[in-house]
Amino acid sequence: MSQRQEKLQKEMWEEIHKEKHEKALEELRTIKNKLDTMNKDSDEYRKLEAEYNQKYQSAEEFFMIYYES
Predict the structure, then answer these.
(1) Where are the chain's structural domains?
(2) What are the backbone angles phi and psi of residue 10, rounded to the nearest 5°?
């Protein structure tokens, strides 16, 4: 990859993808903090944990798609 392409890729990340990825990470942190304070045997915990896992997978896929392109 040329230096120009690398620079454009970096700019694209910063301008387009970074904000979306950071929002997803902040949401994941919020859910994780709530999970850490909950009873792990409760139905509410299991539901929130499933939501966390789904959002984590989505964020991971988003991040990997960007770097594979």
Answers:
(1) 16-68
(2) -65, -45
Burial state string for 8-40 with b = 16 or more CB within 10 A and e = fewer than 16: eeeeeeeeeeeeeeeebeeeeeebeeeeeeeee
Distance of CA 32 to the CA centre of its chain: 12
Asked if 20 and 62 count as a contact pair (C-beta separation under 8 A), the reply is yes
Sign of CA dihedral 15, 16, 19, 25: negative
Mean pLDDT of the chain: 87
> Residue 18 has what pLDDT?
75
